């Protein structure tokens, strides 16, 4: 009778998981802004930058009249009280500047006005204007970046800026829907990665992405941007990083008050142990573009020699004023006023013009408007707000509403136990409560100086 044979049983060998270090060259960082997109690899010493704009070609069957691109207009600037408010704030700023300057620099205003009134343009015969309209002879469906900024207004293209004021630029006009804005972001980011980083789009499946967003960014918009990175561009993985936290990490500090002066808004928030404090977040609705407007207003008071400058209707003049602001404006009181400078005006198809310009204290007065926002002349607008952090998404099973409802039904935990709703401070709807606290000591329409805003943000750190 055959006997059964016991099969040999081999015990499973214990396997230890091994983690391979992430190659930093495969990490791409994207930091989108209202006017500029910064991008680069994690190993780069400095990021690449490009204009965050795309121009789409209008179909021939389109009967809608093209609206002029307004880069300089703001509704609150042309009110009856705007000029009076500016003059009053200017007198306060002048007193603060003149008290810290020698007496010989206090009587330069008349000299500056007289010199600029006599300054005339000189045509440069030996030079060719470096500003030329973008060639559209091949009729591309869209144009991205700097080439889009120099499209002639008469050409059948419409400029789209997908972000505005630290959030997606959603509006009721053409290209203002969420789907259209996401299509703009996908095209711009793909172009930037391919052109500036020399990475083919199909190879993004071997790369990871870090998306840097403002602290007050809409979470639903962040979800759409992650969908662009993972599903449309094809990154293998992606994470979100806040601007304030990224700034603190870049400076090598774990706590501080972060001030981000953007194109249209200024965001302030405090960082502690690498985490942002929600109650300290503050939004000032003025930024670098408002400084440019203020600088232009001061230049006209000083007889700006380029009399034909019209930034409200000509985008090339907007680019010129922005360049002048970045070149001449400062807050260094040791730099003497009354210096003579030169600048060139480049127009497509004509010879460049050279102007001599004498600048006084207006190079300091314009950036000082951040501390005296009445100098911007903005009337009838909300200038100070706090973000509404309430997050309610029907597609998210763990949004604020669900967390609060589930937390109220759960039994009270001990001191050592914390629920998800207690640990996720960012997801709490503290924006509405903070707005009520902010409305008492701060006049939202009067504005708040940058120095006082920083103090207010720090004082709010202890509020729950």
CATH topology (level 3) name of the domain at 24-71 and 134-252: Nucleotidyltransferase, domain 5
Q: What is the topology, as strand order, of the major beta sheet?
A: 3-2-1-10-11
- Category by helix and strand content: alpha+beta
Coarse morphology: globular
* Mean pLDDT over the residues: 84
- N-C termini distance: 83 Å
Oligomer: single chain
Proportion in helices: 25-40%
Q: What portion of the residues fall into strands of 2 or more residues?
A: 15-25%
Q: CATH top level of the domain at 24-71 and 134-252?
A: Alpha Beta
Q: Rg, please?
A: 27 Å
User: What's the architecture of the domain at 24-71 and 134-252 in CATH terms?
Assistant: 2-Layer Sandwich
Pfam families: Actin
Protein name: Actin-related 8
Biased composition (Basic and acidic residues): 406-415
Region (Disordered): 406-428
């Amino acid at each position: 009778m055959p006997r059964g044979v016991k099969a040999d049983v081999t015990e499973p060998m214990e396997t230890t998981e091994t983690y391979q270090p992430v190659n930093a060259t495969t990490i791409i960082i994207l930091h989108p802004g209202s006017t500029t997109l910064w991008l680069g690899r994690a190993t780069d010493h400095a990021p690449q930058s490009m204009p965050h704009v795309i121009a789409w070609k209008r179909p021939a069957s389109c009967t809608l009249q093209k609206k002029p691109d307004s880069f300089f207009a703001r509704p609150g600037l042309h009110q009856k009280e705007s000029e009076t408010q500016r003059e009053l704030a200017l007198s306060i700023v002048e007193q603060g500047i003149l008290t810290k300057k020698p007496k010989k620099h206090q009587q330069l205003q008349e000299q500056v006005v007289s010199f600029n009134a006599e300054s005339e343009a000189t045509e440069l015969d030996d030079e060719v204007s470096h500003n030329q309209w973008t060639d559209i002879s091949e009729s591309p469906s869209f144009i991205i970046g700097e080439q889009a900024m120099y499209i002639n207004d008469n050409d059948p293209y419409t400029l789209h800026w997908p972000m505005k004021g630290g959030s997606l630029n959603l509006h009721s006009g053409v290209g203002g829907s969420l789907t259209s804005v996401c299509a703009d972001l996908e095209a711009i980011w793909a172009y930037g990665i391919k052109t500036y980083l020399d990475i083919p789009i199909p190879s993004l499946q071997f790369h990871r992405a870090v998306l840097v967003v403002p602290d007050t960014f809409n979470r639903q918009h962040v979800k759409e941007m992650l969908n662009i990175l993972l599903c449309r561009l094809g990154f293998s993985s992606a994470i979100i990083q806040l601007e304030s936290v990224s700034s603190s990490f870049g400076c090598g500090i774990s706590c501080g008050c972060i001030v981000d002066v953007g194109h249209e808004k200024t965001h302030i928030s405090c960082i502690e142990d690498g985490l942002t404090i929600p109650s300290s977040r503050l939004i000032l609705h003025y930024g670098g573009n408002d400084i440019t407007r203020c600088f232009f207003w001061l230049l006209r008071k000083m007889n700006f020699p380029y009399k034909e400058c019209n930034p409200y209707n000509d985008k090339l003049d907007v680019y010129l004023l922005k360049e002048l602001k970045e070149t001449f404006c400062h807050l260094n009181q040791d730099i003497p006023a009354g210096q003579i400078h030169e600048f060139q005006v480049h127009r497509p198809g004509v010879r460049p013009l050279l102007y001599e310009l004498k600048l006084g204290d207006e190079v300091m007065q314009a950036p000082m408007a951040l501390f005296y926002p009445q100098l911007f002349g903005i009337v009838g607008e909300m200038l100070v707000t706090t973000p509404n952090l309430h997050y309610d998404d029907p597609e998210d099973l763990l949004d604020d509403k669900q967390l609060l409802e589930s937390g109220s039904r759960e039994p009270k935990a001990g001191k050592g136990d914390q629920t998800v709703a207690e640990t996720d401070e960012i997801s709490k709807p503290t924006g509405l409560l903070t707005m009520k606290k902010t409305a008492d000591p701060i006049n939202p329409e009067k504005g708040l100086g940058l120095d006082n805003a920083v103090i207010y943000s720090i004082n709010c750190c202890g509020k729950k």
